[in-house]
Amino acid sequence: MGFLNLFIVALIPVVKTLIITAIGLVLALEKVNILGDAARHHLNNLVFFVFTPALVSSSLADTITMSSLIKLWFMPVNILLTFIIGSVLGWILVKITRTPRHLHGLVIGCCAAGNLGNLLLIIIPAVCKESNSPFGDSTTCSTNGEAYAALSMAIGAVFIWTYVYNIIRSCGSRNTGSAISIHSSGQGGDILPETNTQPLLQSEDYSHNGIYQSQESQPLIDTDRNEKVPLQKKIKQQFKILAAKMNLKMLFAPSTIATIVGLVVGAASPLRKLIVVDSAPLHVIDTSASMLGEATIPAMTLIIGANLLKGLKKSEVGVWVIIGVQVVRYIAMPLLGILVVKGAHYFGLVGSDSLYKFVLLLQYALPSAMTIGTITQLFGVGESDCSVIMLWNYAVAAIALTLWTTFYMWLVS
Description:
Blueprint: H1 3-28, H2 37-63, H3 66-71, H4 74-97, H5 104-112, H6 118-129, H7 138-175, H8 177-180, E1 221-222, E2 227-228, H9 231-246, H10 254-267, H11 269-275, H12 283-293, H13 296-313, H14 319-346, H15 354-362, H16 371-379, H17 383-412
Antiparallel strand pairs: 1-2
Main location: endoplasmic reticulum
Protein name: Auxin efflux carrier family protein
Family: Belongs to the auxin efflux carrier (TC 2.A.69.2) family.
């Protein structure tokens, strides 16, 4: 495949993202006011509870089988490594640039979480359809590529909603506890603006004035009896502290449950014949989920564009932070990814499938996940700053992603 053809293949999905972002920006203008604060809040809830789970479950059920699960066991490990490496580099970045504390989670999240879903779903099939693709037969390449992209998207969604979600939540609550505390009207508390509400947060973890009450303050010594607490009680107490910090409820977020459902349906042959195949009696369920899932990426991108309006007016993210995120995502991460995948292949953890290795490498060179914008919107912390980072991230991706895609194809062929 020539460089020009490859450039167009990699450029089109990024340009689509930028166009939809611009539409979201226009819809948020005061004269239009279609995507105002309340509208973005409700759209975020739709993305979180409906669109994303539908996309994840339908994609996995359609493309993943038991044999492919066994073959792709290293992919979750590789994705976890992208999050760990990105988090370390993001932490170094916020220390060097002295990023405002409540934005630490946002910057680290943008460095850690790549767009493991829609870009792969667009780029890989497009590469496979090219007549001179290095990955062989286009039909086989497309089938395998869709399976790789679907599993990548599902595993990425789980890590984002369990790991990145809690990082942004933790960093944001340290400085804006009152902004993210939840009081329902039925409890007689003050009602905050809709953009700052998130029903998934534990209201009991916050005091009446919105300040987070950490369970770390509970002593491990029984002061009444002046005796040490038994070891079993200490362990239970420490587990409660960990649960309070991490919000373990998010381990079973809708996207996580959808991943489990999609894997079970796809891997279990009887369920697959019942729901997934074209002649299945319950095939309408799978097609309905697919239709809902198609709205995920446009909805998230529109929200990013709408939040960008605030960022253009006022943003706390400095130029060096924006540059640093690009360096992490498009220079440091791809180079380290080559070492990881090459090392995995050397030790026999990854087979000789060139398309599989290409996908593993590409996971290190993608722009930041659009879902981060949804998370910041849910908490009401750093929405405009996130939009500015995303705008530059995807603008640079038009060139950087194309160059890395070209190099990776040469490397695995």
